[in-house]
Every structure is written in structure tokens, then in C-alpha cells.
Amino acid sequence: MFELFKARFRHGYQAIPNPLKAGMDPAFPGLPVLDKQMDFELLNGVCPTNAFSEQGCDLGKCIFCGACERKFPHMIHFSNDFKMASDDRQKLIMAPGANSLAPIEFRLPSQFRRSFTIRNVCAGGCNACEMELAACNNVNFDISRYGIEMVASPRHADALILTGPISRSMASALAETWQAIPEPRYLILAGACAISGGIFAESPAIDRAFLKHWEACLFIPGCPAHPLSIVSAITQIMGIK
Amino acid sequence: MLMTPVLYPELDTFLKWIRESLSRGFQPFAFFGTCEAFIYCLMGKAGELELACCPFPPAGRYPSLSIDFPAFQIFERELFEEYGIVPIRHPWLKSVRHPVNTQPAIEDYPFLASESPLIHEVGVGPVHAGVIEPGHFRFLMRGEIVEHLEIQLGWQHRGICAMLCDGALAQKMYIAESIAGDSVIAHGTAFCGIVECLSGTEARAKHIRTLLLEMERVAMHLSTLSALAGDVAYIMSQNLFAAIRTTVINSTLSICGSRFGKRALCPGGVNYALTQDLIEALKTKMKYCALQIQNTAEAMFASTSLLSRFDDTGKVSTEDVIRYGFTGISAKASGVPIDSRVDFPNWQYPAFLVQTESTGDVFARAHLRYVEAMQSLDIIQELLKRIDPQSPICTETASFSPNQIAVSIVEGARGRVLHIAKSKDESTALWYKIYDPSMVNWLALSLAVQDEQVSDFPLCNKSFDLSYCGSDL
To answer: Three-state secondary structure along chain B?
Structure first.
């Protein structure tokens, strides 16, 4: 018992006081800043997911591996800004010279502003996004302080948060879970795999037809998406400042 | 390491060699078919590896090895799934991961059933009640008691092995990092080992790789301990261990930018060097973690209400570990001291003793994780003293020598991670096989829950903490 008191005393207060304004380690690769003179063909040469185009860097494809930054540090630099999410797939493209994404305009109806329940479906995810999602609930990030809860049953959920590129085997299980959520229901995509297929986009073992039928209201980039990115994105659509 | 297989033109002599090496105390590390129409078998024991191959049997069938040596059961099923080769009299021949040719869809797979009116079935998954990967568990129940558990995986299959063979292998680091997101360093270094072997490159920064691997082990053990405490409603430890894990993985982030060690590795070395300041900061943080883990664990393992759930639950016997070829915590907790860090030491490890427990129950696996995490933290402190911030961190990899077979073994948090590949030309692989320890260890969970109450299943499951995507690939 005495050991436990010692451990509890040393543990102190571990919760991040305000996850929406938390500081982040400078080593973290967050929102990239692109030089106006960037050459997207050169950058694509080292990019495993061909995330670059004339418009800029597609954060839905980017796996934040840093290969481009290490090879062409004058063209691209990853800042440690973890607030990178969007309500529109097209708005995830970081334009050359820009230093932020277009703001998230989507807001949930007012009845969800204080209570929002989410069911996760992992469909081919590598367990990194899933562990980060689970970490949102731990003492550090404590997403439940905002009334956000990860629930076990889709019947209790307001939204489905998808992780993974949707393996063929999981396609029908994902669709069934989605159908089991009562309306109005919302779809959130977390991680490069869920948003664009990521590095598995070309694999024949992937079936992304589900996303042709249903539109997501929130896209959270990352490989995996950092808990702070997840917390800040979801609280934004709830209208929490 | 590079290996040259012994070629047995006849199936009989090949099978005889397998039986003979089993009698010499070897275990099957890998047994698989390849696109060259050959069956390969890699047998291993501490410090020794033997590789042999044989052409596919002309009739497409051969007498199953699993009847006498159940350790082959999952390998034979994989061979059947991938190349349609039938092991005659295999006790339960069905697909491991994905439907093949005429096989039914994954939703329609057969399961062992019972006609007895005393038995009812419980099916769980693929979507589970939690933030967790998908898999299907089918229980045959007698009242509250589990008679039999069959585990069907394959839901996470993403076609990793095929993707690794498509294009220059050295460029596929990011795929190796996504084999299992919780074992990035274990699979990542195994992959780097293959590329470095095939190209004859001597990797740099081995100390940093070892450091990252041990930090991954600590983080994984803490995550399991936290979940185990949560499963028996011992909330204090659940939260404390989770918070310590955050400190460990945030330290990994400060090295490479990812909490899971993604981006850190590259064939030839590592991508990010450690500065002296960072080394000093890590020393302090890891020291804090060691103290905090010790206090929390000592209190937890003194709690009688927790011990009454952990003790004698989900036992795996020493005989079964050897019979089925289990590895990692699942083996060490039952008193079998196998650890690739000692058995195949191509790593920069300070001397250490492989820790074991004897009882093979949930308590043994939980306590061993605590002991191993503390030991890893000692190794980490030693490594931090040895890392030289000035030394080069990476070297270019040369082109491959064609038609070579490389084997790479790493002790991940779950056990032996094995990669084996053959080079086709100067840059690509002809075939690439991955064996996560979970693939063989899932059967240990099935055995452990037999005759237990179904309510103890989550606890047993967590005590093994196996990977779904690692075995589904």
C-alpha cells in the first residue's frame, strides 16, 4: 500500500491542462511549410505516397516519414503544429507558402456539443492509430473531459471513427457497423490509411468502396494521427474553444 | 545472415531431415512455399539455424507433419492457403488469412462445432467492444466454462509480402514500419537486416537501434500491464502504467518524431542522431520511469484481490510451449528461456540474463513483463552511456547480389520476429516472408482459456497481448 502512495505521489498531476493549447516536442512532424519554389516532381521522387502536386502537399496522403525534409530541407519543413485536420478532403492540401490549412467550418448540431459518443472500427490499421485513439482516453489526454466517449456498441454511438485502409475482409463488417449506428450519424477518418489508403492505396487486398457511398465530416491526418491532433479536431467540430 | 539451403530433390528425404532435426531439439522457425515452386523449412535452436528446401510434391499433397509435431499446424495451413498444397490428415485444414480459389469467403469459414445439447456457441468479432484490431473468436461453451476456443484471423490482411516484392526492396522501409504499428522497431530492424545482408552492408548506429528496440519493449509491456490492471478493475495501476508509457513513447518521439519509432530506421543505419543533451534528458526520464514502474508494480503485485484473478488463470504448460513452438513472453513465462537477443546476438547488447517465470499463468506473464521492462531500462541506461553522438548514423546500401537468401531475427516485445527473403536481381526480392511471434502464439491463448470461465477470457487475451495485423500481414 505504501508503494502505491509513493507511486501516486510521484505521479503527480499528469493531465495536459489544456490539450487544445498544449506545447509539442520540436521533433514532432506536424503541419508542413512548403517553399513557394518547391518542385513537386523532385519531392514526389522521394515520397512513398506521391503526396505532392502543383497545388502543394496532400496531408491525406502524407505519412510524415520526413524523407522529403531530409532530402530537400530548403523546399519543405515540418513544423510541430499538431492542429491539422479538415472537414473537406480537398482542404487537406497544404499550398506552397501557406502556414495553415483552411479553417474547419463544419459544426455538429447543438445537441452534440456537450456529449459525443464515438465507435472505432479498425479496418486493416496497423494498430498505431488504434493505440493513439485509445491513448486519447488516458490520464494525459483525457478526451472524456469534453464529453467525448469511445463506446463499445455502435447502437450507443453518434459517430464512427475509421482507422486503417479498409482491408477487403473488413469491408462488410465496417458497413454493418456503420448501418447499426442510429441517425444522424457522422463519419470521421483518422490517419493517412483511412483518408487515402496511405501506403496501401495500391494494394489489391484493399476495398475502399465504402467511402464512395458515405462522406466523412472530419479528416485527421497523421501516421498515426497524434492524440492531440485527434482531440483538437473533434472538439473543433463540437464547437469547443 | 545469408544462408544457403540444402536442396533435397525428394520429398521423403526432406521430411526425414525435418523429423531428424526435431529429434535434435530444433524448432520450426519457418515453413513455407515460394513462387519458385519450392517448400523451404528453417529449423532453429539457440545459436543454430538450418535451412533446407524441396520442390513442391508432384501430386500437390504430402503427409502432414502437424499430426506428430503440432508446431507445424499454422505453417501447413499457410502453405495450403498460398499454393493449394494439401498436407494429408492435417487435423484442421483451413485458410489462415484470406479466401483462396474455391475457398469460401472469410465470413463463411467453417468452425469446429458440437452436436451435444450441453454445448452452446459464442461468437465474438471481428468488430470488438473496444478500440482494438479485428479478429473472430468462436467459443464452444459448457455453461460458463470454455470447452474450446477457435481463433480466426485474416481480417487485417493488407498484402504486405506482395508489396515488398514489387519494386526496389531498399525503398520499402515505410511498409516494414506498418507490418505492426506497435512493433515498428522490431519489424523495422528485421527488415533492415534483410536489406543489409543482401547488399553486404555493415549497418551503423546499432546502439541507437538497440536503444529504440528496448524502449519499444518497455512501452509495450507497460501498455499490457496497464490493460491487465484495467481488466480486473485495479484502476490506479491502469492509469499509472498508462502515464509512464506516455513518458516512454514521448521520449521515442523526441528521438525520431514518432511515438512508435516510425521514421527512425533506414537500411544502413538510422535517420536521426542523438545529441548529448538528448542523451542526458533520456537518462533522467528513464530513471524516473524505472522508479515509478517499480513502486506501481510492487503495490500491484501485493494486492490480494488482483492476485486472486491473476494466479492460476490461463495456464500454459512447459510441455505445450515446446510442443507448439511458442515464443516470447508466452514461452518465458512457462519456464522456457528462449530469447533471440541471447540466442542470435547480432545486436549491441550489454550482458544480461534471460528472465523466466515458472507457473505459465496470467500472473507469470504479467510479472515477467514487469521484470523485463525493468531489465530493459537497465540496458537502456547502459546503452545511453555507450552512444557516441559524433559517430556516423547511416551508410549507403550497395546493390544486392542476386539469388541469395537472407534471414533476419529480432526479439520484439512479443517474441521472435523473423524475416526471410531471397533476392531476385540487384534491387528486388523474389519472395519475402514475415513471421510475427503472434502467428504461432495465438494457439497458446486457445489452450490457456480451455476449462476457464469465459469471463476470464479478456484477462487471458491481454496477458498474451498478441498482434492481429502482425499475423495477418
So the answer is: CEECCEECCCHHHHHHHHHHHHHCCCEEEEEEECCCCEEEEEEEECCEEEEEEEECCCCCEEECCCCCCHHHHHHHHHHHHHHCCEEECCCCCCCCCCCCCCCCCHHHCCCCCCCCCCEEEEEECCCCCCCCCCCEEEEEEECCEEEEEEEECCCCCCCHHHHHCCCCHHHCHHHHCCCCCCCHHHHHHHHHHHHHHHHCCCCCCHHHHHHHHHHHHHHHHHHHHHHHHHHCCCHHHHHHHHHHHHHHHHHHHHHHCCCCCCCCEECCEECCCCCHHHHHHHHHHHHHHHHHHHHHHHHHCCCHHHHHHHCCCCCCCHHHHHHHCCCCHHHHCCCCCCCHHHHCCCCCCCCCCCCCCCCCCHHHHHHHHHHHHHHHHHHHHHHHHHCCCCCCCCCCCCCCCCCCEEEEEEEECCEEEEEEEEECCCCCEEEEEEECHHHHHHHHHHHHHCCCEHHHHHHHHHHHCCCHHHHHC
